[in-house]
């Protein structure tokens, strides 16, 4: 049932495209372009019909699993249902079919939506100003650290380190490096939270910032956040909030109120813009007032009801996108937030947390719960008990696929062995949660009864377990 | 609007199974002093119907490209997009999926990316392409960082013939890593090659060339490549318009080390600048490959020997390598890459050539007709792909606004970039001769009025 | 535009395998004297891009309902359509499938129809519903034929309170079968029940009642049903608006034998009158069922005892029964029925009730305000669902055109049906109080000017 | 892997809809409506969330097979690729969002398209006038016969019979009955064509019409069509053309030139509007000039560049649709025909006929070809050889499903035993045709080697062979 590659459908002379006849003279570019710059032979792309293309990609889609297929409990990824109306809004010709170089007076409708989105995000987060330019979460982190960098630069302070807890996403340390910082890892304590002593030890006048997710990747709220903030601020550093877990706290707590100075949002998580199989995302950054001058340019501004891009930002950290960021994603997030409004966001968080706690309550007997602290929208189990029977978390994940359900995030956070990070989101219904519970219970039973079978999973998927080692050893990256 | 399934009764049942009374009990870990004690100041929720009315009203405040005849380009190009692309992309198995962590349930995304990588590699004449980056500008930023890491040098030659925004992004990315950017001036609409030759030395990590360049002209790639080749370590980074590669020699044939660019022209709409996709392709070189940022998909086999696809070479990436990763990039632009893949498949060998040639020839036609207008100069002469740089005595802003009154978006006013004056005019296959003739008439009036 | 895969080389190969020289050889069976010897006089082929330009130009010659505030109804209703419907219907497995002849590869269509049948039966309070008919009018035609066959009588009482077009269709269908149609006049906006009682006798095959009726009023169903019940053989056919059934008592509770109607209000757009879907539901009666036209889907089991769905009772149908079939219907309106199914599922119990009540209450509000205008009469009084019949001294056509100048489509001018005068004004949940107030102001001016 | 019924997801109080708050007073309808007409309890429709609905119907769609899934060789159904652009055109708000009671001056754009479509159909068929009102093929047949009925009525002729060949679609005789005629069947001759002697015998002054498909359901062109037409006309009857097989003759022959008087088109076959799992279709009817007065009303007319509906048609056969027919389907057919234009339609027919003949050439060894006459866009095989080995055509059809291909039309036409009526259409590519051939060859081999296995097919489908007898005996038609 493998689908061939699109090139395998190719036959010389077959056409899938449709273009008007050229209605002007055809001239030879070789006559006027620098020698050797006109290609002799057209690029060897497939020659297929429209029918071939449609069937091929329809078939590929059927080899994929999306949120519309069922539960997608990837911890920290917030795979919630993507409302269809957001797709409609992003496709309204008057909104989609505008060019980034149109003068601002021609695009006031869109700018008003972006401006509103900024105001919403500021209110939701308790931050003062927002840039929408970053095109993904990691991009947002990068912009955030670059703002911090510029801030210290302007003040003439040299600070070279960024502290990152060991439970942090891999993007945090990688971002620190990219922004020219040295990443310093600190350990978590036995309750899964930032260890204050380790933090104190790491803090010195070389520290530019602490990057933190709250609730953290264990789903646990860092209760000591106010103390943490004070410690960092007292050491002259700034506090960076990784917004990956915002779905846990909408309307309940705000990074701004926790004294974070900079943060990023993941519109494709919290605000339900589709992940698209790995993007596009969007990672707006929020800052406290004193950091506003350092935001990327251009900066969206309003004056007397007119919206425009301000390029005159002498202290800006610069630019990270060719244009203004992932506009189409912003339209979707605008729709989502505006539609939910004042009361809806709170319900999102409440039900996300309820669903996660329900799963946790039901699963903690069959699987080890390494940290017992209260958790919010997600929680982490360990497959250690099962590992003792020879079945790894990877095997469990693969076995879940046989039951037509996606697996949790596995082997992350690194501080838990055989970890499974589970985030159901608010859009799963009880039936689907119960089915997930039942399946994990079944797998636990299967591990007792027939561990070899589980180790060989998946059995019913379109391909069985794939050899990743071979793929890395002998990279076959193109046809 | 609301997408929650739990009813109050179900909530009650679940709470009781958890062992708490109220939903708010689940939030007790949040200290009171930071717990929000008032509702967010947001508008009230609205229904789908109200939402559609609201956004349609906003849309009506825009002038969109169906309402005006647009000659805007400068990095965002209005090519024809085959109808099937959106139909395929609306298959929810594609657009509601995450990064393909579980390969066995993600073969669709993975195979599509493998096909994308293959076609990008073919188009650019390079050995290896990655699964996409965030956009053209940030792809340039990543390429610069890659060159710095690879060469351990820090001089980067970045001529002014490169898109001003890309240069800004490049400077941002290079900044923390002590990149020493050298800008090279223009000679007409081309990079001043004498200056380039002068600046290029054995401390040079990379020379960046845009192809065609920002002003629409095609650089003398052979000459440039020969210069770069003289410096053993220096990498040649080419920022190429992928549609132009339907007509232009692929950078790989000139010995480019890294080719990056904006993939938007491949079947993605103009969409006010995003989401687009950056593409990146490199020479088939294991050392370079290890420095490459972004996802890669490889072909492999399952336990039964059946072919399948996985994300691979992940030890380069942030989730494995953490602070030692080649980039912090995680989410890329998979769905946009899928659109580009479907575009390349649909257009195919002949179609992409035809789009390129039509764009070129229509531009040539317009150029010829514009040259007949006194008081107007086409800086490119006959060296252009689908953009031309037009100078007039009158400020470009005045010309733009006069043509806008006739529902024509005459081009990008270059003065906004504070370097040059004039209009950058873009013509794609979507224009008809009749459109172009109207443009010329309007321009005649505007220039000479 | 072209959707053929065969290349000239492939054609050559295939011809050689067939054993002929040229494609034209394959047409040798067509006698020369009727073989077309010149090209068809059609325009030249065009590309997708040109096509989109062409149809957009045509569209621009229309005034659509986003450009005007419409109060048009009369059988085609502009309710809000949840966004998800089109997303689901665009799943090509649904819309590019044929009638589900091979059940095993068509479980999606079949199960959806089964769900459709179930929900239509529930909504109408009837025992059995079929898989859809062509539209409301033809469903009435089929119901009449069914009644003639079932009762072997031929008098059909069809009051003037029924949609004039439906009556026309009914007469067409009944014509060849000697149906004797008796029209019953109006009493205000309702059927004259005295006339009805008089006309009804033991030769009457059916009494047809529209519910709410064409003029927007709700007939006294209890009284009518009691009259019909007195005639043993006579069938009561009710043509019901399915949205109204969110508020009105289902016809099944009044003892209706056949309920038919236009399913368009259930999630189908106004679409200039089609494609819509006719629905038909009947009492749970085996004899009646055998007379039912159209497809039926039933639940059954496969060889392993697993539940599945098939087309069933096909011995009623043309492809089996040929000239003895209950109808010639073959293609029905499956995709529209799917849209109705998704609509009913999405709105659910509370949603359909809410749509009905909002439509009713907004109509009531408008009615109340209009009654304040002197020179204007609302014939319905307080008996209406979501349409009201307004009479003015000025001809309706003048009022219509004055409101059109204010971008309001004031209602359906009844004079076009040659029976009554006035405007039939429809209000759905899509209208806001602000819309209605504007309508009233405009009407005030128009009536009294 | 069964998908539950949508009602099985229902929970009291769950909501999938989104409506504005009512912004006017809420009154009790009971106060003003006739007694007993206001329902006490809302209809018991499912109470589910939007997510439930989306997942349910996404899942149902995955249990279906469409043209985008692969070959769909249903004879006489012309299951060709449905271009996506047709769907886009039909959804343009300016075209879709118009109300049937808008005055004609507000909808001139749409009327111009319908009028153009009529002109195209007239040219393609060689008929003089067209009505677009019939909503399906059978509806078109009905209108056609009603036009004939009205014609004779107006002339004062009583004719009560309609002749139908035994190879005709079931709709033909059923339509005759519905239009008040007696259907008289005549036999085909041994070459699969109308037997002229039987025809002569059946013809008398009670015959209103002969209904004919040409090429007929065997794919064979009725060579004697001119003689047939003369015979019918000489007997005072009219000739009706069933347009189901038009895909065979576009640009090669026209019913009008064959002296047919009335015909219907199937826009959903020849002109590729999607079948939608059994509709919507559209069945325009074409007539020769002398029958124009009898066409349904309203009749689309043009005067000085303005289009309007003419209701003043005193001789019209009446009306068969509440409005103007399946407008949305007409838009798609307009797009298809206009896009293909003068040259494209000819290529359609040529390749449809080529593909069918290719299949026939390859398959006639393994399966019996009962009629050897040249055939056009489809052909009929018989499974008689296989039946002798105990495997029926139904079994063969079901076995095809196991190879993820749809089955041909089976057991039709009735004049061939164990018939399989195969129509690949022009949009199948060689790869797909070869796969179909190979699969049928494989099945033929399987029948020799393991007939029991084939008889138990399908094996790999989502459900296995379903019990149709039980379904009919104990109808379960709703939940």
TrEMBL record, chains A, D:
This is Probable glycine dehydrogenase (decarboxylating) subunit 2. HAMAP family: GcvPB. One of its GO terms (biological process) is glycine decarboxylation via glycine cleavage system. Residues 1-45 are annotated as: Disordered. It catalyses: N(6)-[(R)-lipoyl]-L-lysyl-[glycine-cleavage complex H protein] + glycine + H(+) = N(6)-[(R)-S(8)-aminomethyldihydrolipoyl]-L-lysyl-[glycine-cleavage complex H protein] + CO2. CDD domains: GDC-P. Belongs to the GcvP family. C-terminal subunit subfamily. Keywords: Oxidoreductase, Pyridoxal phosphate. Residues 349-449 form the Glycine dehydrogenase C-terminal domain. One of its GO terms (molecular function) is glycine dehydrogenase (decarboxylating) activity. It comes from the Bacteria. The glycine cleavage system is composed of four proteins: P, T, L and H. In this organism, the P 'protein' is a heterodimer of two subunits. PANTHER family: GLYCINE DEHYDROGENASE (DECARBOXYLATING), MITOCHONDRIAL, GLYCINE DEHYDROGENASE, DECARBOXYLATING. Its cofactor is pyridoxal 5'-phosphate. Pfam families: Aminotran_5, GcvP2_C. The keyword Oxidoreductase applies. The glycine cleavage system catalyzes the degradation of glycine. The P protein binds the alpha-amino group of glycine through its pyridoxal phosphate cofactor; CO(2) is released and the remaining methylamine moiety is then transferred to the lipoamide cofactor of the H protein. The modification N6-(pyridoxal phosphate)lysine is found at residue 269. Its EC number is 1.4.4.2. Residues 147-276 form the Aminotransferase class V domain. GO terms for cellular component: cytosol; glycine cleavage complex.
UniProtKB/TrEMBL annotation, chains B, C:
It catalyses: N(6)-[(R)-lipoyl]-L-lysyl-[glycine-cleavage complex H protein] + glycine + H(+) = N(6)-[(R)-S(8)-aminomethyldihydrolipoyl]-L-lysyl-[glycine-cleavage complex H protein] + CO2. The keyword Kinase does not apply. Residues 2-441 form the Glycine cleavage system P-protein N-terminal domain. It holds the Pfam family GDC-P. Transmembrane segments: none annotated. GO terms for biological process: glycine decarboxylation via glycine cleavage system; nucleoside metabolic process. Keywords: Oxidoreductase. One of its GO terms (molecular function) is glycine dehydrogenase (decarboxylating) activity. The keyword Metal-binding does not apply. Belongs to the GcvP family. N-terminal subunit subfamily. NCBIfam families: PRK00451.1. This is Probable glycine dehydrogenase (decarboxylating) subunit 1. It comes from Halonatronomonas betaini.
């Amino acid at each position: 049932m493998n689908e061939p590659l699109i090139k395998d459908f190719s036959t010389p002379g077959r056409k899938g495209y449709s273009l008007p006849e050229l209605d002007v003279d055809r001239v030879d570019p070789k006559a006027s372009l620098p020698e050797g710059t006109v290609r002799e032979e057209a690029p060897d792309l497939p020659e297929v019909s429209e029918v071939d293309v449609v069937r091929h990609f329809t078939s590929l889609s059927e080899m994929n699993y999306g949120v519309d297929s069922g539960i997608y409990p990837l911890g920290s990824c917030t795979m919630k249902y993507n409302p269809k109306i957001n797709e409609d809004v992003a496709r309204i010709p008057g909104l989609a079919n505008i060019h980034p170089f149109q003068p601002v007076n021609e695009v006031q409708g869109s700018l008003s939506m972006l401006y509103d989105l900024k105001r919403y995000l500021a209110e939701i987060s308790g931050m003062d100003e927002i840039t929408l330019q970053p095109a993904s979460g990691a991009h947002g982190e990068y912009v955030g650290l670059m703002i911090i960098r510029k801030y210290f630069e302007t003040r003439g302070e040299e600070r070279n380190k960024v502290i990152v807890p060991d439970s942090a996403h891999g993007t945090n340390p990688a971002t620190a490096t990219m922004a020219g910082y040295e990443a310093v890892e600190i350990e978590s304590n036995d309750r899964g939270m930032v260890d204050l002593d380790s933090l104190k030890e790491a803090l010195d006048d070389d520290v530019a910032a602490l990057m933190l997710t709250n609730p953290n990747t264990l789903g646990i709220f860092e209760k000591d956040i106010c103390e943490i903030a004070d410690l960092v601020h007292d050491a002259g550093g700034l506090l960076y909030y990784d917004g990956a877990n915002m779905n846990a706290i909408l309307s309940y707590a705000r990074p701004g109120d926790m004294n974070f100075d900079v943060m990023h949002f993941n519109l494709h998580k919290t605000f339900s813009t589709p992940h698209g199989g790995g993007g596009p995302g969007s990672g707006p950054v929020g800052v406290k007032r004193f950091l506003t001058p350092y935001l990327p340019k251009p900066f969206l501004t309003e004056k007397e009801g007119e919206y425009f891009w301000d390029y005159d930002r002498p202290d800006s950290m610069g630019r990270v996108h060719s244009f203004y960021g992932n506009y189409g994603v912003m339209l979707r997030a605008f729709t989502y937030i505006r539609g939910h409004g004042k009361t809806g966001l709170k319900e999102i968080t409440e039900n996300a947390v309820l669903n996660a706690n329900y799963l946790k309550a039901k699963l903690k007997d069959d699987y080890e719960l390494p940290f017992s602290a209260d958790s919010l929208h997600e929680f982490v189990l360990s497959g250690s008990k099962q590992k003792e029977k020879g079945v790894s978390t990877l095997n469990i994940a693969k076995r879940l696929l046989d039951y037509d359900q996606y697996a949790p995030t596995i082997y992350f956070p690194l501080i838990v062995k055989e970890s499974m990070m589970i985030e159901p989101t608010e859009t799963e219904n009880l039936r689907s949660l119960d089915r997930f519970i039942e399946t994990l219970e079944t797998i636990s039973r299967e591990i007792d009864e027939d561990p070899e079978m589980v180790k060989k999973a998946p059995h019913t998927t379109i391909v069985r377990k794939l050899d990743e080692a071979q793929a890395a050893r002998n990279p076959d990256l193109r046809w | 609007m609301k997408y929650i399934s739990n009813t109050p009764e179900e909530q009650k049942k679940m709470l009781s199974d958890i062992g708490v009374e109220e939903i708010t009990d689940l939030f007790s870990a949040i200290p009171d002093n930071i717990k929000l004690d008032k509702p967010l100041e947001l508008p009230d929720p609205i229904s789908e119907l109200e939402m559609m009315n609201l956004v349609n009203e906003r849309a009506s405040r825009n002038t969109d490209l169906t309402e005006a005849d647009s000659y805007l380009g400068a990095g965002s190009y209005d090519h024809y997009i085959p109808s099937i692309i959106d139909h395929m992309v609306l298959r929810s198995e594609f657009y509601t999926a995450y990064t393909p962590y579980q390969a066995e349930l993600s073969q669709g995304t993975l195979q599509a990316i493998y096909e994308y990588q293959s076609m990008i590699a073919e188009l650019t004449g390079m050995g290896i392409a990655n699964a996409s980056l965030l956009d053209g500008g940030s792809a340039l930023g990543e390429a610069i960082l890659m060159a710095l890491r690879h060469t351990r040098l820090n001089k980067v030659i970045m001529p002014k013939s490169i898109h001003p925004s890309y240069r800004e992004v490049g400077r941002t990315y290079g900044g923390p890593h002590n990149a020493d950017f050298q800008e090279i001036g223009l000679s007409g609409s081309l990079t001043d090659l004498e200056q380039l030759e002068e600046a290029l030395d054995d401390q040079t990590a990379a020379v960046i060339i845009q192809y065609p360049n920002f002003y629409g002209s095609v650089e003398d790639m052979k000459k440039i490549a020969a210069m770069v080749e003289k410096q053993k370590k220096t990498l040649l980074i080419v920022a190429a318009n992928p549609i132009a590669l339907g007509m232009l020699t692929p950078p790989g044939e000139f010995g480019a080390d890294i080719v990056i660019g904006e993939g938007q022209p491949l079947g993605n709409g103009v969409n006010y600048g995003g989401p687009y996709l950056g593409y990146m392709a490199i020479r088939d070189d294991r050392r370079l490959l290890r420095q490459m940022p972004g996802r890669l998909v490889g072909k492999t086999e399952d336990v039964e020997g059946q072919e399948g696809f996985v994300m691979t070479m992940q030890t380069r990436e942030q989730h494995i390598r953490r602070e030692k990763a080649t980039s912090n990039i995680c989410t890329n632009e998979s769905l946009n890459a899928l659109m580009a893949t479907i575009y390349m498949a649909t257009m195919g060998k002949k179609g992409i050539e035809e789009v390129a040639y039509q764009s070129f020839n229509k531009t040539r036609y317009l150029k010829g007709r514009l040259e007949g207008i006194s008081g107007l100069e086409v800086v490119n002469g006959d060296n252009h792909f689908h953009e031309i740089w037009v100078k007039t005595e009158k400020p470009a802003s005045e010309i733009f606004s006069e043509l806008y009154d006739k529902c024509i978006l005459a081009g990008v006013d270059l003065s906004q970039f504070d370097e040059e004056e004039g209009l950058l005019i873009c013509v794609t296959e979507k224009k008809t001769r009749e459109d172009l003739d109207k443009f010329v008439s309007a321009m005649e009036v505007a220039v000479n009025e």
